[in-house]
Task: inverse folding
């Protein structure tokens, strides 16, 4: 049954790239950060969330060290009481490149930890993992650390279109069980097809304090 999307993206624009936390623009809308190893499908999903084709670059040559990339969205939730809302997506630099040095890995950690510690505006971190890969040490450490920092975290399994129906059910159940202790919610998405993106928006709405009834697809 077709459902009504929980949100309409009115505008989406690149704001800045911050190479360290001091370069983060002061003040601004609530933030949702997106983390994931290189090639997990982060840019593709970000474009899909924003409803734009090429907001984030979809890269086939990963490896460039970069900073925090900020995109500002203006959205309208289905509920009239949340007419328009600003939202900042913070694309964290990818990790897990085979050839990075210890120093680069450390720089990633300093940047991301510095950002999370400093940002009162951060409402949710989406941790992406490829449906065809296991959750790695990097993801586990990040999720555990976010929990310690009291930052809500949502695990997003990407490239769901690569899985058959049976595989999906098994994967979803396994991941849910594995992450119950860490307190992380889980969703299965495909940036390629858009599957699961409405549910992901609902999760974002929840983190932003949009009433649950308002953010879930339904009657209107
Ligand atoms: P990033 O490095 O995490 O930003 O990943 P990209 O978005 O650049 O995607 C990496 C590769 O995975 C590209 O070849 C994409 O076409 C592919 N990809 C990304 N998302 C999906 C998806 O949902 N399904 C499938 N089948 N491929 C995807």
Result:
């Amino acid at each position: 049954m077709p459902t009504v999307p929980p949100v309409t993206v009115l505008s989406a624009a690149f704001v800045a790239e911050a190479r360290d936390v001091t370069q983060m623009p002061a003040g601004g809308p609530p933030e949702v950060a997106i983390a994931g190893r290189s090639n997990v499908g982060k840019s593709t999903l970000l474009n899909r969330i924003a409803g734009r084709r090429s907001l984030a670059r979809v890269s086939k040559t990963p490896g460039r060290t970069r900073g925090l990339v900020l995109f500002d969205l203006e959205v309208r939730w289905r509920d009239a009481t949340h007419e328009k809302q600003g939202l900042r997506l913070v694309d964290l630099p990818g990790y897990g490149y085979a050839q990075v040095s210890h120093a680069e890995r450390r720089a990633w950690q300093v940047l991301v930890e510095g950002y999370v510690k400093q940002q009162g505006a951060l409402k949710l971190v989406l941790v992406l993992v490829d449906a065809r890969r296991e959750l790695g040490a990097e993801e586990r450490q990040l999720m555990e650390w976010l929990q310690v920092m009291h930052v809500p975290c949502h695990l997003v399994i990407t490239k769901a279109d690569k899985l058959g129906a049976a595989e999906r059910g098994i994967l979803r159940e396994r991941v849910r069980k594995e992450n119950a202790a860490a307190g992380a919610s889980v969703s299965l998405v495909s940036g390629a097809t858009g599957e699961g993106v409405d549910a992901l928006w609902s999760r974002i709405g929840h983190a932003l304090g949009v009433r649950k009834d308002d953010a879930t697809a339904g009657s209107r």
Remarks:
- The helical segments are 42-50, 102-118, 137-148, 165-180, 197-208, 212-215.
